[in-house]
Amino acid sequence: MKLEKLPDDFEGSLNISSPQDETPIPGPDLLTQAMNAYSSLTPPTTLEDGTTGPQVPPGMAAMRNKSTTEILAELNKSPLFMTELEANDDLEALKALAYEGTPAEVAGGFKERGNECFQVKGWGDAKEFYTKGIQVLLLEVRKRQTGKGEETDSAEVKKEVGILEASLVNRAACHLELKNYRQSAKALLALGKIEEADDACAKGLSVDEGNVALKGVAREIIKKNEEITRRKKIEAEQMEDAKIQLTPDPTDPTSTISFPTILLYPLHLESDFIKAFNELEPISHHLSYILPLPWDLKHEYTPANVECYIETTTGGLLKVGKKATLLKVLTAENVEVVDEVVKIFVVPKAKAPAWIQEFKTKKGAEKKMG
């Protein structure tokens, strides 16, 4: 085998010790290639700043001078690119159109499903089905208004309008039924019937658990129940050993009778307890040291500025003179002491007429409800 001597500069000519960077230069991306291909086939165009540049497709030209935020907002309007699904009404309509049939047939199907739920008092589900049908038909209306929809036979349009009107009316009926639950709960709450109000509210939420108005009533019921529970607890503690008794000496026939008494402030859901209200004392005697009240920030409750009432056995109200003795009040017609406790309502003069009317309305409603 014959060996040949390599020349001295052989290593340098190969440049083995310092290899060249062979990283390939990236070519244009697909979007750039598409733009270049389009611009090579069309004449240059004048830009808004007066310079000349390659012409781009019409859809991209509309985006040329928009900011990134504006471009993303435009893209989000298309179901293909959208990232905020709940903000696009058309998306729900497009989902609904996934069902086979014409828009009228699809919407009609939703209406029938809604009717089925309505018949069994499933107001919440019925409302959802009607809403889906309405969205489908409103999408068709928008398409026709913008000229983007296909030409539709007049008979088909008339059919769509009929289904749309029926669905809107039926959905309104669902709202009315759900609203009735709310009104019933509020009326019962105003009457102080906490359990009944809670039951009406619970039934409403069982058919539409997301109903904001009913949730608001539910919070009111909870708050009212907490207030009543707190007040009853305080009264129970105060009345632990309270009872009708002869004073000062139960064995002395000349002694007078004292009654446990509650002063009720119905406009503010507050009360005060008097352990021993003697029959010979006028109510003004007790008002003189109880008023003003610590929670009365508007200073509406003063001895001279309030009126007092006691409920009669017939459900009416008897105005109590502040200088009249308790004995005179209790011996009036249709007045009785229930559970050994006298209850006297205290109301600011200016608000008394409205409160009396409200009291009568509540009592009338209680009688109707049995």
UniProtKB/TrEMBL annotation:
<dbReference type="Pfam" id="PF18972">
    <property type="entry name" value="Wheel"/>
</dbReference>
<dbReference type="InterPro" id="IPR044059">
    <property type="entry name" value="Csn1/TTC4_wheel"/>
</dbReference>
<keyword id="KW-0802">TPR repeat</keyword>
<keyword id="KW-0677">Repeat</keyword>
<dbReference type="GO" id="GO:0005634">
    <property type="term" value="C:nucleus"/>
</dbReference>
<dbReference type="GO" id="GO:0051879">
    <property type="term" value="F:Hsp90 protein binding"/>
</dbReference>
<dbReference type="GO" id="GO:0005829">
    <property type="term" value="C:cytosol"/>
</dbReference>
<feature type="domain" description="Cns1/TTC4 wheel">
    <location>
        <begin position="249"/>
        <end position="359"/>
    </location>
</feature>
<protein>
    <submittedName>
        <fullName>Putative Hsp70/Hsp90 co-chaperone CNS1</fullName>
    </submittedName>
</protein>
<dbReference type="GO" id="GO:0006457">
    <property type="term" value="P:protein folding"/>
</dbReference>
<dbReference type="GO" id="GO:0030544">
    <property type="term" value="F:Hsp70 protein binding"/>
</dbReference>
<feature type="region of interest" description="Disordered">
    <location>
        <begin position="1"/>
        <end position="29"/>
    </location>
</feature>
<dbReference type="InterPro" id="IPR011990">
    <property type="entry name" value="TPR-like_helical_dom_sf"/>
</dbReference>
